[in-house]
Amino acid sequence: MSALTKLIAVETKLFLREPVSLFFVFALPIGLMLVFGLPQRAGTAADSGQHAEQTFLPSLALALTIGMLALFTLPMALGIYRERRVLRRLATTPVRPALLLVAQVVVNLVMGVLGAVVTAIAVRFLLDQPAPANLPGFVLAFLLGVACLFAVGLLIAALAPSARAAQSIGPALFFPLLFLAGAWLPRDRMPTVVAFIGDYSPLGATVDTIGAAWAGASPEWGQLLALAVTAVAGAAAATRFFRWE
């Protein structure tokens, strides 16, 4: 068994021991859809515009899963490792510290994919909605959303001076991004400039592209490009500023 495989196995066990992380990935998205989706299905919801779209809630739930893993779990774990000098100690062993970063990303990515599968199944059977109609577009949008948000999470981990700071910066960024995605106020009711920013923000573009593919349409290339550019820029900045101690 290689060093990377061992690290992934250890990080997976540590992840599964955290009830809060499991709640973020599996329970919260399904709860969100049940609370807001069942009234919509029964015809008692008063939503209009963006919120009335059939695929809005499922795509928001998936984006919520990715966003919480990227902005809550990932930066906090890496911040703790740096604060406790785990990364520095690894530098004195044959196991390179970079492998721990790779293991963290792999574990969170796998959990995000599992969360997406569970959410898609819940959508199908609890809300009686079809599976994603444009599967290639759905996979592309999902992976670009993951890459974009994980790059932002790694940048937070790189810049945060402590685990407590990382734990604060993630939510401080997450909730404005959630607002821009249209979670509380549909973007078609926002001022034009704010709505435009929301369209190309990490969570907003993720919600829109996943939702479009889920409905069978092609995701907007401008939004896919925004996700890709943010992913590359965030990863480059995280690599540039990351500190091992």
* Total E-strand runs: 0
How much of the sequence is in beta strands?
under 5%
The stretches of 5 or more residues where confidence is low (pLDDT under 50) are none
Major sheet, described briefly?
A: none
Global geometry: globular
Topology order in helix (H) and strand (E) letters: HHHHHHHHHH
GO cellular component, one term: ATP-binding cassette (ABC) transporter complex
Family: Belongs to the ABC-2 integral membrane protein family.
Transmembrane segments: 20-39, 60-81, 101-127, 139-159, 165-185, 221-242
Subcellular location: Cell membrane; Membrane
How would you portray this structure in words?
It is found in: Cell membrane; Membrane. With 245 residues, the chain is mostly helical. The protein has one domain. 76% of the residues lie in helices and 0% in strands. It contains ten helices and no strands. It has helices at 3-16, 19-42, 56-83, 86-90, 97-126, 135-159, 163-180, 192-199, 202-214, 221-241. α3 (56-83) runs antiparallel to α5 and α6 (135-159) packs parallel to α10. The longest helix is centred in the middle third of the chain and has 30 residues, at 97-126. The two termini are 28 Å apart.
